[in-house]
Amino acid sequence: MAKKSLRKGIFITFEGPEGCGKSTHSKLTADFLRKQGYKVVYTREPGGTRLGDKIRDVVLNSKKIDISPLTEMLLFEASRAELVKEIIKPALLGKKIVISDRFNAATLVYQGYAGGVSLRDIKGVESISIKGIKPDLTIVLDIGAEEGLKKIHRGKKDRMESKKLSFHRKVRKGYLDLAGQSRKTIKVIKTRKTKFETFGEVKQEVMNVIRRYKGRG
User: Please, are residues 137 and 125 in contact by the beta-carbon 8 Å criterion?
Assistant: First the structure.
Protein backbone atom coordinates (compact mmCIF):
# COMPACT_ATOMS: atom_id res chain seq x y z
CA MET A 1 0.00 0.00 0.00
CA ALA A 2 1.26 3.48 -0.92
CA LYS A 3 2.20 5.71 1.98
CA LYS A 4 -0.32 8.46 2.68
CA SER A 5 0.87 11.99 3.33
CA LEU A 6 -0.35 14.70 5.68
CA ARG A 7 -0.06 18.47 5.52
CA LYS A 8 1.01 18.49 9.19
CA GLY A 9 1.72 16.07 11.98
CA ILE A 10 -1.32 14.95 13.97
CA PHE A 11 -1.29 14.32 17.71
CA ILE A 12 -3.98 12.00 19.13
CA THR A 13 -4.20 11.05 22.81
CA PHE A 14 -6.28 8.52 24.69
CA GLU A 15 -7.52 9.16 28.22
CA GLY A 16 -10.04 7.88 30.70
CA PRO A 17 -10.58 6.31 34.13
CA GLU A 18 -8.85 3.07 35.08
CA GLY A 19 -10.16 0.06 33.18
CA CYS A 20 -11.63 2.11 30.34
CA GLY A 21 -9.60 0.37 27.62
CA LYS A 22 -7.46 3.31 26.54
CA SER A 23 -4.34 1.18 26.08
CA THR A 24 -6.26 -1.32 23.96
CA HIS A 25 -7.86 1.33 21.78
CA SER A 26 -4.75 3.46 21.39
CA LYS A 27 -2.91 0.37 20.08
CA LEU A 28 -5.83 -0.62 17.84
CA THR A 29 -5.82 2.91 16.41
CA ALA A 30 -2.08 2.87 15.74
CA ASP A 31 -2.34 -0.52 13.99
CA PHE A 32 -5.35 0.59 11.94
CA LEU A 33 -3.65 3.78 10.75
CA ARG A 34 -0.46 1.96 9.81
CA LYS A 35 -2.51 -0.45 7.70
CA GLN A 36 -4.09 2.58 6.03
CA GLY A 37 -0.63 3.73 4.96
CA TYR A 38 0.09 6.45 7.51
CA LYS A 39 3.37 6.88 9.36
CA VAL A 40 2.54 6.39 13.02
CA VAL A 41 4.54 6.82 16.23
CA TYR A 42 3.06 5.16 19.30
CA THR A 43 4.00 6.13 22.86
CA ARG A 44 2.66 6.20 26.40
CA GLU A 45 2.72 8.21 29.61
CA PRO A 46 4.47 8.17 31.91
CA GLY A 47 7.29 6.62 29.93
CA GLY A 48 8.20 6.50 26.28
CA THR A 49 11.83 7.45 26.92
CA ARG A 50 14.58 5.94 29.09
CA LEU A 51 14.08 8.64 31.70
CA GLY A 52 10.30 8.43 31.45
CA ASP A 53 10.32 4.68 32.01
CA LYS A 54 12.38 5.18 35.19
CA ILE A 55 9.90 7.80 36.43
CA ARG A 56 7.01 5.49 35.56
CA ASP A 57 8.48 2.75 37.71
CA VAL A 58 8.92 5.11 40.67
CA VAL A 59 5.47 6.71 40.52
CA LEU A 60 3.37 3.66 39.68
CA ASN A 61 5.20 0.79 41.34
CA SER A 62 6.75 2.27 44.51
CA LYS A 63 3.84 1.44 46.80
CA LYS A 64 5.94 1.72 49.96
CA ILE A 65 7.03 5.28 49.17
CA ASP A 66 4.70 8.12 50.13
CA ILE A 67 4.50 10.41 47.08
CA SER A 68 2.31 13.51 47.36
CA PRO A 69 0.08 14.63 44.44
CA LEU A 70 2.33 17.70 43.99
CA THR A 71 5.43 15.52 43.68
CA GLU A 72 3.57 13.18 41.32
CA MET A 73 2.68 16.16 39.15
CA LEU A 74 6.27 17.37 38.96
CA LEU A 75 7.56 13.88 38.14
CA PHE A 76 4.94 13.39 35.43
CA GLU A 77 5.73 16.78 33.91
CA ALA A 78 9.46 15.94 33.89
CA SER A 79 8.69 12.70 32.06
CA ARG A 80 6.43 14.61 29.66
CA ALA A 81 9.09 17.22 28.89
CA GLU A 82 11.52 14.50 27.84
CA LEU A 83 8.85 12.70 25.79
CA VAL A 84 7.95 15.88 23.91
CA LYS A 85 11.61 16.66 23.19
CA GLU A 86 12.71 13.16 22.18
CA ILE A 87 9.63 11.62 20.56
CA ILE A 88 6.55 13.77 20.03
CA LYS A 89 7.93 17.02 18.58
CA PRO A 90 10.30 15.34 16.06
CA ALA A 91 7.51 13.04 14.87
CA LEU A 92 5.07 15.92 14.40
CA LEU A 93 7.70 17.93 12.51
CA GLY A 94 8.10 14.87 10.29
CA LYS A 95 4.34 15.01 9.53
CA LYS A 96 3.64 11.73 11.27
CA ILE A 97 0.67 10.73 13.41
CA VAL A 98 1.54 10.45 17.09
CA ILE A 99 -0.69 8.23 19.24
CA SER A 100 -0.18 8.52 23.00
CA ASP A 101 -1.67 6.47 25.81
CA ARG A 102 -2.30 9.46 28.13
CA PHE A 103 -0.85 12.99 28.01
CA ASN A 104 -1.42 16.29 29.82
CA ALA A 105 -5.13 15.78 30.56
CA ALA A 106 -4.18 12.90 32.86
CA THR A 107 -2.18 15.21 35.13
CA LEU A 108 -4.94 17.80 35.27
CA VAL A 109 -7.38 15.08 36.29
CA TYR A 110 -5.37 12.74 38.53
CA GLN A 111 -3.22 15.26 40.37
CA GLY A 112 -5.56 18.24 39.92
CA TYR A 113 -9.26 17.31 40.10
CA ALA A 114 -8.66 14.16 42.18
CA GLY A 115 -5.38 14.97 43.94
CA GLY A 116 -6.10 18.57 44.91
CA VAL A 117 -3.15 20.29 43.23
CA SER A 118 -4.09 23.72 41.86
CA LEU A 119 -5.02 23.53 38.18
CA ARG A 120 -3.33 26.90 37.72
CA ASP A 121 -0.07 25.51 39.13
CA ILE A 122 -0.29 22.43 36.90
CA LYS A 123 -0.88 24.56 33.81
CA GLY A 124 2.03 26.80 34.79
CA VAL A 125 4.46 23.87 34.91
CA GLU A 126 2.84 22.39 31.81
CA SER A 127 3.56 25.55 29.83
CA ILE A 128 7.25 24.78 30.31
CA SER A 129 7.13 21.00 29.89
CA ILE A 130 5.11 20.73 26.67
CA LYS A 131 6.08 24.06 25.07
CA GLY A 132 2.82 24.52 23.20
CA ILE A 133 2.48 20.93 22.00
CA LYS A 134 -1.17 20.02 22.42
CA PRO A 135 -3.31 17.17 21.06
CA ASP A 136 -5.38 17.68 17.92
CA LEU A 137 -7.76 15.10 19.36
CA THR A 138 -8.18 13.61 22.81
CA ILE A 139 -10.45 10.61 23.10
CA VAL A 140 -11.83 10.04 26.60
CA LEU A 141 -13.14 6.52 26.99
CA ASP A 142 -15.80 6.82 29.66
CA ILE A 143 -16.64 4.10 32.16
CA GLY A 144 -18.03 4.17 35.69
CA ALA A 145 -15.32 4.11 38.36
CA GLU A 146 -16.55 0.91 40.01
CA GLU A 147 -17.01 -0.91 36.71
CA GLY A 148 -13.57 0.10 35.49
CA LEU A 149 -11.78 -0.99 38.66
CA LYS A 150 -13.45 -4.40 38.49
CA LYS A 151 -11.61 -5.02 35.22
CA ILE A 152 -8.22 -4.75 36.93
CA HIS A 153 -6.87 -7.82 38.70
CA ARG A 154 -6.38 -7.03 42.37
CA GLY A 155 -2.81 -8.30 42.52
CA LYS A 156 -1.76 -6.26 39.48
CA LYS A 157 -2.97 -2.83 40.59
CA ASP A 158 -0.37 -0.05 40.58
CA ARG A 159 -0.27 2.96 42.94
CA MET A 160 -2.89 4.90 41.00
CA GLU A 161 -5.22 1.96 40.50
CA SER A 162 -5.00 1.14 44.22
CA LYS A 163 -6.39 4.49 45.35
CA LYS A 164 -9.84 4.72 46.98
CA LEU A 165 -13.05 4.58 44.96
CA SER A 166 -13.80 8.21 45.86
CA PHE A 167 -10.54 9.21 44.15
CA HIS A 168 -11.47 7.38 40.96
CA ARG A 169 -14.93 8.95 40.93
CA LYS A 170 -13.22 12.36 40.99
CA VAL A 171 -11.01 11.22 38.12
CA ARG A 172 -14.02 10.39 35.98
CA LYS A 173 -15.73 13.68 36.85
CA GLY A 174 -12.53 15.54 36.00
CA TYR A 175 -12.36 14.03 32.53
CA LEU A 176 -16.00 14.85 31.85
CA ASP A 177 -15.48 18.42 33.08
CA LEU A 178 -12.45 18.89 30.80
CA ALA A 179 -14.41 17.48 27.86
CA GLY A 180 -17.21 19.94 28.55
CA GLN A 181 -14.71 22.81 28.37
CA SER A 182 -13.06 21.66 25.13
CA ARG A 183 -15.75 20.04 23.00
CA LYS A 184 -13.87 20.60 19.73
CA THR A 185 -10.78 18.63 20.69
CA ILE A 186 -11.92 16.30 23.50
CA LYS A 187 -14.42 13.64 22.49
CA VAL A 188 -16.09 11.39 25.05
CA ILE A 189 -16.89 7.85 23.94
CA LYS A 190 -18.75 5.56 26.32
CA THR A 191 -17.34 2.06 26.38
CA ARG A 192 -19.65 -0.50 24.73
CA LYS A 193 -20.27 -4.19 25.35
CA THR A 194 -17.44 -5.18 23.02
CA LYS A 195 -14.20 -3.46 22.11
CA PHE A 196 -15.17 -3.66 18.44
CA GLU A 197 -18.30 -1.57 19.02
CA THR A 198 -16.28 0.99 20.94
CA PHE A 199 -13.51 1.03 18.35
CA GLY A 200 -16.03 1.81 15.61
CA GLU A 201 -16.73 5.13 17.33
CA VAL A 202 -13.06 5.72 18.06
CA LYS A 203 -12.16 5.18 14.41
CA GLN A 204 -14.83 7.64 13.28
CA GLU A 205 -13.49 10.44 15.52
CA VAL A 206 -9.90 9.73 14.48
CA MET A 207 -10.67 9.80 10.77
CA ASN A 208 -12.64 13.04 11.15
CA VAL A 209 -9.44 14.72 12.36
CA ILE A 210 -7.16 13.09 9.80
CA ARG A 211 -9.37 14.19 6.90
CA ARG A 212 -8.67 17.81 7.80
CA TYR A 213 -4.97 17.39 7.19
CA LYS A 214 -4.74 14.80 4.44
CA GLY A 215 -2.22 15.51 1.72
CA ARG A 216 -2.14 14.16 -1.81
CA GLY A 217 -1.21 10.58 -2.47
Answer: no
